[in-house]
Amino acid sequence: MNKKQQQLDQFKSDDSNQPLTTNQGLKVSEDEHSLKVGSRGPTIMEDFHFREKMTHFDHERIPERVVHARGTAAHGVFECYEDASDITKAKFLSEKGKQTPVFVRFSTVAGSRGSAETVRDVRGFATKFYTDEGNYDLVGNNIPVFFIQDAIKFPDFIHSVKPEPHNEIPQAQSAHDTFWDFIANNQESAHMIMWHLSDRAIPRSFRMMEGFGVNTYRFVNAEGQAHFVKFHWKPKLGVHSLVWDEAQKIAGKDPDFHRRDLYDNIEQGNFPEYELGVQLIAQEDEFKFDFDILDPTKIWPEEEVPVRILGKMTLNNNVNNFFAETEQVAFHVGHVVPGIDFSNDPLLQGRLFSYTDTQLIRLGGPNFHELPINRPVCPFHNNQRDGYGRQTINVGPVSYHKNSIQQNTPAPVPPSEGGYEHYQEKVEGMKVRARSESFEDHFSQARMFWLSMTDIEKDHILKAFSFEVGKVARRDIRQQVVEMFANVDVDLATQLAMNVGVQPPKITQPVETTKTSPAVSQFVNPIFSTETKKVAIIVNQKTENLGAIIDTLKAKKVAVELVSDKQQAILNFDVDHTLDTASPVLYDGIIVAGKFDEPKAQNKLNHFIEETYNHYKPLAFLVAPDMQNPITIPGDEGVVQTVESFLEALRIGRHWNRAKAIG
């Protein structure tokens, strides 16, 4: 058990087999009736137990996050692969094998707390490292760039993507007028839109998506040498996504799909793993690239700036209480440790203010650091006092610096003994409201992203564009979007114009670049595996060799659920779901090991088969297929007749060469 788990255990309360008390510890003799004047009379103010119970209930909800409201989280540990003291003096990266407790929160951005999890959206990927030097928060997303370049535009962007204020519609969607009006009139968003409309925005699970720090930071070593740095989380299972039709249907079948997947896999011991990598640029090389390295709408292509892997994070414990941990955790890009510093990235600079301001209103005041989930594992001492939610009982008369009563303690610590020291960067210039000219190229990397995609990925992006812009009611906005993205690719914009009913673009040449970055494609260098994938076996009372089928799948670390027309026992195995309570979109593949005589049940099975086929997922027929459903006869790619061939099809995942598929 790590230090953070030990610390949190101090705050656990097991209420089982305990007497009922008030919050002050007073044992309660009655909890069914309020104190009244007579059995039918009015409740009286004297009833302190009622008032305490009701007041607490009235205040059980804190304001949800304006963004990243819908989230889930887990505890884990980060293990350092090597001594990275050549690039940073951060101690949690200073020793091979050194372990640091972490807490990670995954989230969507646009939706409210009750929204579905498989919507097309950016995903938050925020990590709190409980280091020996204090808490370090790496607050990022699953997409490495952002919509805007300067934080002052963040309220505008969020206002545009949130439900429109006149009717509070739509929830957790970017497919509406105000969002696309913002995009068309703020063209710095072009690169981010290409990522947003790619498969990256509909991940298969939190366990199978990359994380990125987004902003440009600094590493500083003990000698004062600095590098610009960007952070990467690379999932060991690879990067995998849903298809759009599947994502929409999962939102209705299981709006908790991603949090359920994360929770269940941790409970089953399938601990998600991610490697932490960094891209480094020496201070003297700041201006050697054809993009501004401080521009948050730009990536540093991995082919030009390689990723150095520093360690691995394993998520191995679910939270004990969602509210106390997941909902009350407070992340902040300004929570750093010695060896990690900031750049002049204008989006990062604004985040340094905004995160503190946000926690003050969400968590009721300046003492959010005292909540158990936010407390560092190392001691903290200063002259801050009082305020809402104060838990520390400070002793003694001193709460100021400098003082003689306590020999001027708590005292500052020099950098040589671990005190934080900001990197000394020379800054000069006029006081202006302006943006560097080096930030003005909005389309080169958007086109680079497009040129780096495989044909399948390009097809998905076009379909996503057509869906999103097709939802825009105002024709002039649709036309503006077509004109904007002709700068990325004329054929893309022309096809989009046809699909959404506007004129072809006037622009006939995209921005000039032939540069590609294969690392941004999910399909160029995929990681294939059967591990932790979930499979439904369709069974009936005539199913043969069920135990052997299950054993073969589980030997490859595949999760198995049995589905039938009735929730019954079959060959000593309990059926997990019926055809009504399960859905094909919730599985990575289907094995048909039984058919049904009753026509309604067979029709439901045929729906399972068709959905699986249309979403390009593996499908095995261990019994003869229903010839009334000829679209999925064996022989099509990924449609097989043995468990062994199914496992190979499952390892690959999606089978795109299905001409009849409509997913």
Automatic annotation (TrEMBL):
GO terms for biological process: hydrogen peroxide catabolic process; response to oxidative stress. It is an enzyme of class 1 (oxidoreductase). Its EC number is 1.11.1.6. There is a cross-link at H332-Y355 (3'-histidyl-3-tyrosine (His-Tyr)). Keywords: Heme, Hydrogen peroxide, Iron, Metal-binding, Oxidoreductase, Peroxidase. Residues 1-26 have a biased composition (Polar residues). Residues 21-409 form the Catalase core domain. It catalyses: 2 H2O2 = O2 + 2 H2O. The active site is at H68, N141. One of its GO terms (molecular function) is catalase activity. Residues 1-38 are annotated as: Disordered. GO terms for cellular component: cytosol. Heme binds at R65, R105, F154, R351, Y355, R362. Its cofactor is heme. InterPro entries: Catalase, Catalase_AS, Catalase_clade2, Catalase_clade2_helical, Catalase_core, Catalase_haem_BS, Catalase_immune_responsive, Catalase_large_C. Decomposes hydrogen peroxide into water and oxygen; serves to protect cells from the toxic effects of hydrogen peroxide. Belongs to the catalase family. HPII subfamily. This is Catalase. The lineage of its organism: Bacteria, Bacillati, Bacillota, Bacilli, Bacillales.
